[in-house]
Write a structure and sequence with these properties.
The chain has 21 helices and no strands. It has about 450 residues and is mainly α.
Length: about 450
């Protein structure tokens, strides 16, 4: 059934509410960052900015249509299938991460990596550990919080450049956003273009592999400086403790439904924690609840943005943008460049790669179908570019964390940010040479 459209064609003006959001949230955040205010992006919270933008779209457009009718259109977008599925999945992902942390699984997997990695391979090891954790948890934020402080502390103890260690941890943290089956960014991309998560993850891994190898080698070479002879201490870990991560990764690779994977992962944390005496039943449920609550912001914010996009589409903004972009596109290659650049810009502006994909996916899917670009490549470009650009943004959470724990300069962090630069260059080369463009049978 064809979607309802306004009788008035607002063309590019339909995007003014979205620009209002970006101006309020990003503009105020940058201003307060330059002013040296603590928590600059919290001064005008994203929720306030997006609600204000929604109010603009409801009040100042199509005034002959009742507010109730426009609210009905908004709620249809806010409650669309993909957004509701995302909300449920991210709540489960938060519950898994928090319950795994409560039984010591998160610290155990970090300790295991530190124990198994030789000191002279420490920085490459930090990068690879962060890649593993972000893939296991599906969240860059959780990985940043877990690994950045440890990475900088280890580097300081071993006499290695802490900026390099911090950059390695940040790069690994964002790796999982485009690879993990439970990554919200990957889930949104999958729903947005109508492609299986497994197929997108496979392609993303192929694109990321050269960057992983080159980055690992570069960190091994550039970190080969003076090392302390004192061995670095680490905490204890057992195979049983890290089993929940093995369960999630293993079941994800089988192609099992992500909801069931996370449910079994959460169950494994409870069984292991309770029977080992690490945690009580109600402590486990409280930890699970705490993790779910930490993900409320993404569930709610994604719904708010999706509703706003629905209104923009109703006001014919999406139709106008498609027509406008099509006049600038000369073929599949220019289409892929445009999808990648637009997604990266929105991700960098909103500091959220999932939101960037939510906004870009409807347009990218239409353009991809028009120019016979495989849906998995469209999804791959969106996830790769939206994730890769974040670690290079000076006011991103990962950069701020590294600066907080290591008293590091932004330019020093960027200097050692090998992975995102190589990844983005690899993506551009794939576009330039027309690789993975056409659909192939899986």
């Amino acid at each position: 059934m064809e979607k309802q459209r306004s009788k008035l064609d607002y063309r590019g003006f339909a995007f003014i509410p979205l620009l209002v959001f970006l101006f309020l949230y990003v503009g105020c955040g940058v201003f307060f960052t330059l002013s040296g205010v603590e928590d600059p992006f919290g001064q005008l919270p994203r929720y306030v900015a997006i609600v204000f933008a929604i109010c603009v779209s409801l009040v100042f457009y199509d005034r002959k249509v009742s507010l109730s009718d426009k609210l009905e259109i908004y709620t249809k977008g806010a409650g669309r299938h993909g957004v509701m599925l995302l909300s449920f999945v991210v709540l489960l992902a938060g519950g898994f991460q928090s319950s795994a942390s409560a039984i010591g699984a998160e610290s155990a997997i970090v300790n295991m990596g530190i124990d198994l990695i030789p000191l002279n391979f420490l920085v490459p090891g930090i990068f690879l550990i962060a890649c593993i954790i972000s893939t296991a948890t599906g969240t860059s934020m959780g990985t940043q919080v877990a690994i950045i402080p440890v990475a900088i502390a280890l580097a300081n103890g071993a006499g290695i450049n802490s900026a390099m260690a911090g950059a390695a941890a940040i790069a690994g943290a964002y790796f999982g956003d485009s690879i993990a089956f439970i990554s919200s960014t990957l889930i949104v991309a999958s729903n947005g273009v109508g492609e299986k998560i497994r197929n997108i993850a496979k392609l993303n891994f192929l694109i990321s592999l050269p960057a992983i190898i080159i980055t690992t080698v570069l960190y091994a070479l550039t970190s080969a400086g003076d090392l302390n002879t004192t061995s670095t201490s680490h905490g204890a870990y057992t195979f049983v403790t890290i089993l929940p991560y093995i369960v999630v990764i293993g079941l994800s690779l089988t192609g099992m439904n992500v909801v069931l994977v996370l449910a079994l992962g959460i169950a494994s944390t409870g069984i292991i924690g309770i029977f080992s005496g690490t945690i009580g039943f109600f402590e486990w449920t409280q930890a699970m609840s705490s993790g779910m609550e930490s993900m409320f912001f993404l569930a709610v914010f994604s719904s708010l943005v999706s509703g706003l996009i629905e209104l923009i589409e109703y006001y014919r903004g999406i139709d106008w943008l498609l027509k406008f972009l099509m006049t600038k596109i000369k073929g599949a290659r220019s289409c892929e460049y445009l999808i990648s650049i637009v997604t990266a810009m929105i991700s960098g502006a909103t500091l959220n790669n999932t939101v960037a994909v939510i906004i870009t996916a409807p347009i990218a899917k239409e353009l991809g179908d028009k120019y016979s670009i495989s849906r998995k490549k469209v999804a791959s470009l969106m996830t790769i570019f939206s994730s890769g650009v974040l670690s290079l943004v000076p006011y991103d959470s990962s950069v701020l964390l590294a600066q907080k724990y290591g008293d590091l300069d932004y330019l020093n962090l960027v200097k050692y940010s090998y992975y995102p630069f190589i990844l983005l260059i690899t993506g551009l080369l794939i576009i330039q040479f027309g690789l993975f463009t056409s659909d192939q049978k899986e």
